[in-house]
Amino acid sequence: MIKKNPIDLRRPVVKLTGRRLKLKIYELLNAEDFPASLEFICQFPARQSINTFLSFFYSKEELIKWRAIAAMGRVASKLADENMESARVVMRRLMWNLNDESGGIGWGSPEAMGEIMAMHKGLANEFCNILRSYICENENYLEHEMLQRGVVWGIGRLAQAWPEILPQTESHIYPFLKSVDACHRGFAAWALGNFKSLPAAAALKALSEDNAQILFFNDLQLKPVTVGLLAKEALEKIIKSNPDKPEKCLK
Q: First vs last Cα of the chain: how many Å apart?
């Protein structure tokens, strides 16, 4: 349940550690005015708050999980501006979470990688190919369907910010348009729209009648949407970016 004004955002940040910090960040992630909370969260020491965000990636509350991912992006971006090597350590930690040797599953890690890179182009230039490799069968392919959701969303978020940074990525996303998993289809449609992928237009048009409903996080909001709506919006982006080739978009 979203709470109104869990904390006075005008007050200066006091030093918090351990459980007190985790509880305070939870309150802020659960606040009604989340954009204002984000500004407040960014005032906490980065290394401590990042550990807290990681714990919330495993939350059963979808809103808390996604807001923690968004907060991670902003805090890690701020950290990169101050100390690039420390931000690289954060990215490598997320990569380790996706490694079989870590002993875990890595929930939220690919989404966080995409969000961080969307917020900081320097990190995007260094790590974008790693994120893409998780859906490339001859590279670091992740077979877990839930993690694949995160990778496709993360790539879509990265493409939303820097569509030029991952050339030759769309072909690895196309198969997800035909997945039995509705989130795969919806996230893939959104990602291909962010890439302005003309070759995907026909498939997106066919997907526009897909009435499967999913939870989708975008612009700091978590909302139920249909796969068809995401496909239609993606197709509109492609048509607008290819005004001289409308017939190819609508075939």
A: 45
